[in-house]
């Protein structure tokens, strides 16, 4: 599996640096070139419970939203904003168990891109699936966001390929 990490935005509640944003989940996202998908992994703790032992659905939705945004950015070579996100929950995600998230672009037209993704348990059980429509930011706005990212050597720069 050829994984290439994405940069992060230090203050992001999902991919941010917990030293900058203590509430951030600190998820590291990467591009899996073999699968043509953005991927990430998160292990929820007690503070992520919606109720006893089960991860809050809003947190699962946030993970899927960000994963799909990265997949769309690769396709569009621009950062993208969510227009619509539909999540279907199929099984409870458990506190303390890894959640594997993956997302891929499905189609694009003009500045719009459609994506799909899923969250799975360590046993590969489908926890949730999502479809979404994103819009690519104009080049100047993508450049502004790019300048605010923490881009490390080896990271996939979606604006430059």
Would you write up a description of this structure?
This protein is an alpha+beta fold. The chain has a single domain (3-148), classed as Hotdog Thioesterase (Thiol Ester Dehydrase, Chain A, Roll), CATH 3.10.129. The protein has helices at 57-76, 139-148; strands spanning 3-5, 29-32, 37-42, 49-51, 54-55, 80-89, 99-109, 112-120, 126-136. The strands form two sheets. It has a seven-stranded antiparallel sheet, with helices on one face. Strands 4-5 form a two-stranded antiparallel sheet. The model has no long low-confidence stretch (mean pLDDT 96).
Low-confidence runs of at least 5 consecutive residues: none
The name of the CATH architecture is: Roll
Q: Strand share of the residues? A: 35-45%
**Which secondary-structure class do the elements indicate?**
alpha+beta
Q: Give the strand line-up of the largest sheet.
A: 1-2-3-7-8-9-6
Question: How would you concisely characterize the structure shown here?
Answer:
This protein has 161 residues and is an alpha+beta fold.
Furnish the topology, listing elements before pairings:
Layout: E1 3-5, E2 29-32, E3 37-42, E4 49-51, E5 54-55, H1 57-76, E6 80-89, E7 99-109, E8 112-120, E9 126-136, H2 139-148
Antiparallel strand pairs: 1-2, 2-3, 3-7, 4-5, 6-9, 7-8, 8-9
Features:
161 residues; Thiol Ester Dehydrase, Chain A; 2 helices; single chain; seven-stranded antiparallel sheet; two-stranded antiparallel sheet; alpha+beta
